[in-house]
Amino acid sequence: MRLNPRRALDSPLVCGTLGVVILLCVAEAAGRLGVIPPVQFPLASTILVEAARLAADPAFLTDIATTFAGWAMGLLATIAVAVPLGLLLGSVTPIETALRPLIEFLRPIPSVALIPLASFVFIDSTEMKVAVIVYASMWPILINTIYGLRDVDPVAKETLRTFGFGPLSVLLRVSLPSTAPFIATGIRVAAAIALILAISTELLAGGSGGIGGFIILAESSPAGVTLTVAATFWAGVLGLLTNGVFVLAERRIFRWHTAKTGAAQ
């Protein structure tokens, strides 16, 4: 069986991997040729070696676990708040109209700017991390839930009402299943935001543990820039893997929605 190069290049995984390899090679060549002085920024090969060492470092693995513990608690709390609120706002138009100005006022506020304020309100670093994550991550879930409810087939809802089903039954039997793919997309986006805010909170909180705390300590270590960039590299890799898991789960669970979208296109 022959491997078709053109078909292989059509694969997002192959193209993505090829792009990363090319970027690393260009960065390595720039360092070797002196375009980017290695004193200011380490060689790509040096960063990869340090990143591989960190993968076996128990202290760094503990910091990763700390970050993901806060990330998971924050994301679960966000889902528990944003999904019911989105269903309420999407189902009751007067409430959504009344709260829309408040939502549009709060949503653009940079979440990172609220971290110093949160440090005054919450003494415990984990509570502060969860609170900031909830604030930053709830918007994509909330907005997606509202717009998902608007996309529900009105004929299906009217059919259930005709047969005597109440508003709650219509919501649970028609609206919620139809909105679920939109909610899942919002959760996937929120998961990435939650990870960013978890690490940002650790960075700005100063020595609160986690990947962010590790990066702060790495800046003053003998390894300096190399260790800092290697830890940052792992933050990016973990974000990529997290998003990949959510994308895969979304495609598996809502395969019918993907097929429906593809047919519509």
Protein model, in words:
Mean pLDDT is 83; it is low at 259-265. 81% of the residues lie in helices and 0% in strands. It has helices at 5-9, 12-32, 44-54, 58-91, 93-106, 115-121, 125-150, 154-162, 167-205, 210-219, 225-253, 255-264.
Q: How many whole angstroms does the radius of gyration measure?
A: 23 Å
**Level of helix content?**
over 70%
Span between termini: 32 Å
Mean pLDDT: 83
Write the element-wise H/E pattern from the N-terminal end onward: HHHHHHHHHHHH
Largest sheet: none
Assess the beta-strand content as a share of residues.
Answer: under 5%
Shape: elongated
> Which structural category do the helix and sheet elements fall into?
mainly alpha
Number of helices: 12
Low-confidence spans: pLDDT under 50, at least 5 residues?
A: 259-265
Total strand segments: 0
Task: List its traits.
265 residues; mainly alpha; disordered C terminus
Task: Briefly say what this structure is.
By secondary structure, this protein is mostly helical.
Topology of helices and strands:
Layout: H1 5-9, H2 12-32, H3 44-54, H4 58-91, H5 93-106, H6 115-121, H7 125-150, H8 154-162, H9 167-205, H10 210-219, H11 225-253, H12 255-264
Helix pairs in contact: 3-11, 4-5, 4-7, 4-9, 4-10, 6-7, 7-9, 8-9, 9-10, 9-11, 10-11
